[in-house]
Write a structure and sequence with these properties.
Chain lengths: ~325, ~80
């Protein structure tokens, strides 16, 4: 059963849980920016948690269904409409053959996940259907969806009752201001203590350039660096280092002005110092930040980071139990 | 006469001109046809045209050049 794309939205891509194992070759894991929302969308339509969905950013596509089926929209508050009639997010919805799914204006968050029973069944590249446009991998011909595309859908799913929904307390969204927990480390020794304190006390705003590769922030104080003799291979700019690997979630601050958090489509290495990394439990929240969102970076230690990871895993388990 | 609102489909930075040195696409008082470009929204390193979705006369712009805008925000009003 193909889904016909009538309009594509802004940069709507096919995403699953990504292709781990190739980052050392420069190919990022990719996959959903908000992994919990993708898993929940799949559970709502009886798919395996890691089935491929559409990730719509800031605005929705218009999709026509060619068979009766079930769908769900999770993540951002991007209100779905079926043949123009408003429907709930985070809920199992039935659609009939010939009906069209469209969306109202985005109310909160940034990325919505659209799951269809059976999952999107495009060809996998390196073990994943996730679209990595820069590398032309996954998706349809390695690109975002376009009007005229017919998206293939699988046939394997479990029945979920129409109207089933994920309890509100298990839907995770950033607060306002958004708070991202950060474990300082990596090249944090390049920054003076006072400057690091300011980095954590300042209020930042998401820049409009933020995308799947990285989220850029503006508005905080410029970083002050510890004096040094530039090491071999590093440039003269104090934010430069001898090229190194970039972890997912690492925060680089080129020239000490605008922090960039690397996300799912990250570059794997380069020559900017990193002040630390966003903890794994908060990576999903970044994917739900709109441009201009006020954001604070909160300093945590490894103990807090690991307990936050357990809390996040418990939330996912609670969602699973909703469907047990 | 009814007022039609042109709203932002996406968040980003609103621009009223194609480039900093060019004149604005449209001014208040100009007539527009459905499909005419009245501005740009910059987001995720790309620019997206904002088009009038009705024929009429622009009565006002509700967002300034280079203003940070939110989805659904009214950018301009058209008297149809």
């Amino acid at each position: 059963m193909p889904i016909n794309v009538k309009s594509a939205g802004l940069a709507t891509t096919i995403q699953d849980l990504g292709r781990p194992g190739y980052y050392h070759l420069g190919i990022p894991v990719g996959g959903a920016m908000d992994r919990l929302a993708l898993r929940a969308a799949n559970m709502l339509v009886g798919n395996d948690e890691g089935a491929a969905c559409l990730e719509a950013v800031f605005m929705g596509p218009e999709l026509e269904f060619t068979e009766d089926t079930q769908i769900a929209v999770t993540g951002a508050e991007l209100p779905p409409k079926i043949d123009g009639e408003a429907r709930e997010t985070w809920t199992t919805l039935s659609v009939r053959k010939g009906q069209v799914l469209s969306f109202d204006y985005l109310r909160a968050g940034a990325r919505a996940y659209i799951a269809v029973a059976g999952g999107i069944d495009t060809a996998a590249n390196l073990g994943s259907r996730s679209t990595y446009a820069i590398g032309a991998l996954g998706g349809i011909d390695g690109r975002a969806i376009q009007p005229g595309d017919a998206i293939p859908v699988g046939r394997d799913f479990r029945n979920v009752a129409e109207g089933t929904s994920v309890p509100r307390n298990l839907r995770r969204m950033p607060g306002n201001p958004a708070e991202l927990r950060v474990l300082p480390g990596l090249y944090v020794h390049r920054v003076t203590e006072e400057s690091l304190d300011r980095f954590f006390s300042d209020s930042w705003k998401v820049a409009s350039e933020a995308d799947r590769m990285g989220y850029r922030f503006q508005g905080g104080s410029p970083i002050e660096f510890v004096d040094r003799e530039p090491p071999f291979g590093a440039g003269s700019d104090p934010s430069n280092i001898t090229d190194a690997c970039y972890p997912y979630g690492s925060i680089q601050i080129p020239s000490g002005t605008e922090p960039i958090i690397l996300h799912r489509d990250a570059v794997s290495g380069g020559g900017y110092f990193m002040v630390g990394t966003v903890i794994s439990a908060d990576m999903d929240l970044i994917g739900q930040l709109q441009p201009h969102t006020e954001t604070r970076f909160v300093r945590v230690n490894m103990h807090t980071a690991l307990s936050a990871r357990r809390v996040r895993a418990a939330t996912l388990d609670s969602i699973r139990q909703t469907f047990a | 006469m009814a007022i039609h609102e042109v709203r932002a489909m996406m968040p980003g930075i609103f621009y009223r001109k194609p480039s900093p040195d060019d004149p604005s696409y449209k001014e208040a008082g100009d007539s527009v046809a459905k499909g005419d470009v009245i501005g740009l929204i910059e987001v995720m390193k790309s620019f997206h045209e904002v088009v009038a979705d009705a024929d009429g006369t622009i009565t006002s712009f509700q967002a300034d050049n280079e203003e940070a805008i939110m989805p659904g925000q009214v950018l301009a009003e058209i008297e149809v």
